[in-house]
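Customer escalation, tier 2.

The customer says the design service returned an amino acid string that "doesn't look like it belongs to this structure." They asked us to rerun it and document both sides in this ticket. The original structure tokens are below, unchanged.
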């Protein structure tokens, strides 16, 4: 499952859809004891201020197998120009240090295996 943001408006801006169903499904899977792997896209200046909040939300889940921190990339940037639509992607890519710090923060709070 992917968890981009716990703030619904930001999740809609990032993914185009609300996160309510994802968060409900995550709680349901936890309640029935299913193993879950979480992917957290790290987008500088978008969800970097929410990493601790996301980790605290995930910490009580009993069946987390691992958490992956996915560095934001701008591979789709050229498609905007080709389609003649405004590019709404962030300009800044995350540094290796930001990704490492994010992984360490998540691991410290969740005590789960974190892959970055």
């Amino acid at each position: 499952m992917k968890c981009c943001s716990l703030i619904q408006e930001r999740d809609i801006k990032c993914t185009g859809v609300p996160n309510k169903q994802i968060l409900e499904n995550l709680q349901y899977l936890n309640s029935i004891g299913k193993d879950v792997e979480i992917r957290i896209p790290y987008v500088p200046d978008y969800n970097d201020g929410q990493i601790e909040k996301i980790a605290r939300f995930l910490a009580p889940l009993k069946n987390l197998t691992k958490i992956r921190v996915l560095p934001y990339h701008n591979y789709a940037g050229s498609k905007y120009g080709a389609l003649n639509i405004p590019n709404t992607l962030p300009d800044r890519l995350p540094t290796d240090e930001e990704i490492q710090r994010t992984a360490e923060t998540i691991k410290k709070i969740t005590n789960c295996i974190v892959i970055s």
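Tier 2 assessment: The sequence is consistent with the input. The longest strand covers residues 64-71. The two ends are 16 Å apart (CA to CA). Sent an explanation to the customer and offered a walkthrough call.
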